[in-house]
């Protein structure tokens, strides 16, 4: 039995190899804090979400009985039903992804609405990472974080860190912060993280 998790992130340009390594490391450190050390899935940083879906489809089609294959991607938009992941992806402009034969909703783990939503949920991790120049008042409120559009969350995070020497940007810096997040804090504010941890715990 094996488990593989295809990750949205890591880039596809000339620096993609280094970014993909940092992507895997950021998620590995977060998952280890979720008590998955010793039963970690193989983490595959795919770059764009389309690449993650393509890699997932191939692995799902070829998996052996008992293997767990999944993808961890941004939801891009708020979810009407947290558990109906394929129904969310199918009509999305730019996705229009059809559920592969025999694929289940538990094979799609969504960061709602984006990885930055997970990052802004942990204010203590942000404070430790960015220091005194972090503008807390510019961050989105913690209430109903997953109902906020991804651009709103991303813009607010960038604005709150604009005066920091290590101001937030996607790529290397984003994965550095991801690695410092505390699972218990994320579970307090993010139903999508609760779901992800539950499903991985059931399948690893």
Structural account:
The chain is of the alpha/beta class. The chain has one domain. 46% of the residues lie in helices and 10% in strands. It is built from nine helices and four strands, in the order βαβαβαβαααααα. β3, α3 and β4 form a beta-alpha-beta unit. The longest helix has 21 residues. The N and C termini lie close together (9 Å).
Q: Would you count the extended β strands for me?
A: 4
Tell me the strand order in the biggest sheet.
Answer: 2-1-3-4
Structural class based on helices, strands and sheet pairing: alpha/beta
Radius of gyration: 16 Å
Structural domain count: 1
User: Which bin fits the share of residues in helices?
Assistant: 40-55%
Provide the low-confidence segments as ranges: none
Shape: globular
Characteristic terms for this protein:
single chain; 204 residues; alpha/beta; four-stranded parallel sheet; 4 strands; globular
Record the SSE blueprint.
Blueprint (H helix, E strand, L loop, with lengths): L2 E5 L8 H21 L5 E4 L3 H14 L5 E7 L10 H5 L18 E4 L3 H7 L1 H8 L19 H11 L11 H7 L4 H7 L1 H13 L1
Parallel strand pairs: 1-2, 1-3, 3-4
Helix pairs in contact: 1-7, 8-9
Can you summarize this structure?
The protein is of the alpha/beta class.
